[in-house]
Amino acid sequence: MKAITLAYDHNPAPRVKNGIQLLKQAFQDSGYDVLEEAVSWTWDSYRSIKGRKLFVGNRGESQFLQQLEERDVLLYHTENPEGEGFYVASVSGNLVTISGGNDSGVLYGCLELAQRIRTAGLLPEDIAYGDAPSFALRGPAIGLQKTTVEPPRQTYEYPLTPGRFPWFYERGLWLDFLDMMLEQRCNIFYLWTGHPFSSLVRLEDYPEALEVTEEEFALNVDTFRWLTEEADKRGIWVVLKFYNIHIPLPFAEKHGLKLHQPKPLPFTSNYYKKSISAFVKSFPNVGLMVCLGEALQGQIYGVEWFNETIIAGVLDGLKDLNVKEKPPIILRSHAIEPQKVIEAALPLYPNLFTEAKYNGESLTTYTPRGKWKDIHNRLGSMQTVHIVNVHILANLEPFRYGSPSFIQKSMQAAKYRLKANGLHLYPLFFWDWPFAPDKVEPRLRQLDRDWIWFASWFRYAWNPDRDPQAERQYWIRVLGQKYGSLEAGEAILDAYDASGECAPKLLRRFGITEGNRQTMSLGMTMSQLTNPDRHMPWADLWESQAPQGERLEDYVTRELAGETHIGETPPEIIADAVRHAKDAVRAIERAQSSVTCNMDEFQRLVSDMYALQHMVEVYVQKVQAAMLILTYKHTVKGEFFKGLDLLEQAAVHLENGLESYRELTHITEKTYLFANSMQTPQRKVPVRNGLEFGHWKQCLPIYETELDQFKLHLEELKAGQLPQALQNLKEPIVPYKEVPFKLLSDNAELFKVEKGTYVFTDGDIHIVSCAEELNNLTGIRFGQMQAGLNGIAIDIELEQPSQVLIGYFNNKDQQWLQAPSLEENTHADDMGGYAPILRKGLRLYAYPSVNVHAFNYEAGRHTLDFGRGAYLILGIVPADQVMRQRDVEHKNDGIDTLDWLYE
């Protein structure tokens, strides 16, 4: 019988205890007789213990390890273990030591040795191995969020109850999840919600703030405390993420406040400070992640709210606690510039972190550049740990993704290009956690289906610089064990790596946005490909989240002009996508004969590869059609009866693309419940409303109609007829009606919207021209300087439900208020107004042009307070006013866009 003495210092920390138990189990499973005991060994006494010995300890606290180090008995050939680093060593006296830089380092050392014991079936005779993580924070995000709003609550507002989140109370699910994180050496997970405190703390001063029943409250506290204790055993920080300034519904109703507050009030600050203090006292090993953007006007009030409310609440909660380390506070860099907030906060609280999205809300490249690279570099250079957030993954949904090669390069880019030191990873289907989107009963768990997604990111968060050839062999072994043979493992790895290039390349060259407005797998309309400006494209997609390259129209105009191309071109990308898709299908077919286990999951993987190939073919055919149509546009120059052979060729590609879409629909009808996890009105590409158009079968009729219209208009042109669509674009423009309202603010005045009128109370900036729809409406003007420097609040009273017309300047300078953006603010479309109704609807003397948006308001009193930056109030019109979206300069919706070909 093999025997081992497993020793450690008295009163080990919970995560050290857990490491010891992992070791003990590995020894016992390998046939060892284990004597486990707390000891008080010294450098001159341990040799008296007979047989093989293993000592586990934190080198910063263990006197025994310190004595061995001082006498050169325990030496390190790598960096001395610090923090989460560890070193496993055979030393004289038949002793093996696990020396951790801290308690987590001890745990990881135990995990490493336990894995080696299981693999070899015994404790190695000679070992000298040290390791430490490259990234300080490594872990996934889970959402206590839903995609449906519960009026009168607003976006993100979901009290924590078994009815809303039954999975939260499933301890077996949590244990599987936490064990996966420990196996992958994660040290944090991020729990996202809107306002968690009203479900987890009770305040004597604000009893009305509790949003759950007493029974639900007790269950929440018990579950959350158990969860944080189990996480702590595994060396994992739980971090609770919340939005600012959100307040509980009963609290808001009692005090006559809006649920989402744009600026601090003494009353709301006091409530938040006490909530956070009570939360920290109840859960001292839980960190906080703070979003100062969206509802809160963070650029103006971020420093004040962060320092005087949030940090003050944390410090108050900690003052009577004896904790080893202060909980992390992570500032999310979303809709706010975080530098000045962090600089002001560091003297108050040292354990600060920053976070920013890696590729926006998709996965597009491992070479991010441009503005977003600069943002990451600035944050990474501060006195904080900077975290990359691999967010939403809107272009990968709903298919499996597991390209270790792409993911390794992404983590190397996070380290070297972005200067980050932490990973925050979304699941592939975030909004439907814990379930995968597959059409299977019982539903698959994402934890199981997407195991390789989690394993790849966290492996390379620990060490992104592993040798690629060795990594290939590693993943072949892992996949071979899962599917029954090394031959199967190699072929499946090739399929994962090839397919992993398809969606990133297609989206970054042809997409509208890297944000969650677009479900890429559902395709794109021809208007979105040939006239993207109409659909509010997000320039960061190709300026930051893609290598240098050309958009479709840029490519066509350069090609026609004989100019040299630069970077990725559309033909190169579609050729690449076809090659990758074919390679993936060939590889998965090669695996068929070698797979001997997990056959059901393998067949689902096969189906995904075929579906991805059809998706690629849809894009390839439509992009080829788009290039022909754009060539037609720039060669016929308005003489639409010429060059019809180009349109005839495009029609063939559209026919082929539609056939591939039908095949894609046929596959996914059997395999997927829906294409995206966020089925909300924010989904606008390819079709508005992700709930009604969340599956390929719902979008197929849109594309069938698109092709029918194209063929109809082509036949009209071939017959020498002017299509009716062209005539409809020439309909007369009707001025908007206005409704009566009262201006209640004394810091503003009314004015008539017409040529020559001043638009601000300070200065002489006047209207040069305006859209006919706006002429003679009654606007409200105020001081440009006040609005630009501090923001301005305007009080009005409406007699009836109305639309308020707001003008945004077409300039990104900080002096101008920026239009709402779904990429930055999920509330951007709550009141309508997301898309401009009149692009460049107003021109001013010497100022940028103005886009006009319309926001919905009920009858009654309202405060118009949009934050810092100058803007215009150009009139108030009836709620039912019909508004035709158009570009007043006829560049994005005029005849020359050719949108009439498809509509």
From TrEMBL:
UniProt xrefs under Gene3D superfamilies: Chitobiase/beta-hexosaminidase domain 2-like
Could you tell me which InterPro entries the record lists for this protein?
A: Hex-like_dom2 (IPR029018)
A single GO molecular-function term is:
hydrolase activity
Q: For this entry, list what GO says about its biological process.
A: carbohydrate metabolic process
Keyword annotations for this protein?
Hydrolase
Q: State the protein's name.
A: Alpha glucuronidase N-terminal domain-containing protein
Source organism of this protein record: Paenibacillus foliorum
Species lineage: Bacteria, Bacillati, Bacillota, Bacilli, Bacillales
